[in-house]
Design brief:
Elements lengths: L2 E5 L2 E4 L4 E8 L6 E8 L6 E6 L6 E3 L7 E6 L4 E6 L8 E9 L5 E3 L3 E6 L1
Parallel strand pairs: 2-11
Antiparallel strand pairs: 1-3, 3-8, 4-5, 4-9, 5-6, 7-8, 9-10, 9-11
Length: 118
């Protein structure tokens, strides 16, 4: 079982950058597929970016392609999301998710708030 803790959120002006981190404890981090999701009040949680368990494959929502980069450091048990050219519509609570490859069980972090001012 893995526990996830996000950090790095905050308030930034449009056009700025932030890097989110998701630190894992417990479980075998290198065997999980990982992803970032975000949610705003009244809306469903949406996919932002994902990365495979060995980091060889990544995927992005169309809305963030070319601006966000997902990466992982299995030695540090940490997932990252580099967010550049931020827009006010990127404002949301960002969550990391780990999916166990064998059981497909999902683990979620508690979220970190990102606010982009115009």
């Amino acid at each position: 079982q893995v526990q996830l803790v996000e950090s790095g959120g905050g308030l930034v002006q449009a056009g700025g950058s932030l890097r989110l981190s998701c630190a894992a404890s417990g479980g075998t981090f290198s065997t999980y597929n990982l992803g970032w999701f975000r949610q705003t009040p009244g809306k469903e949680r949406e996919f932002v970016a994902g990365i495979s368990w060995i980091g060889s494959s990544t995927g992005y929502a169309d809305s963030v392609k070319g601006r966000f980069t997902i990466s992982r450091d299995n030695a540090k048990k940490t997932l990252y999301l580099q967010m550049n050219s931020l827009k006010p519509e990127d404002t949301a609570v960002y969550y990391c998710k780990a999916t166990e490859r064998s059981t497909k069980y999902d683990y979620w972090g508690q979220g970190t708030q990102v606010t982009v001012s115009s």
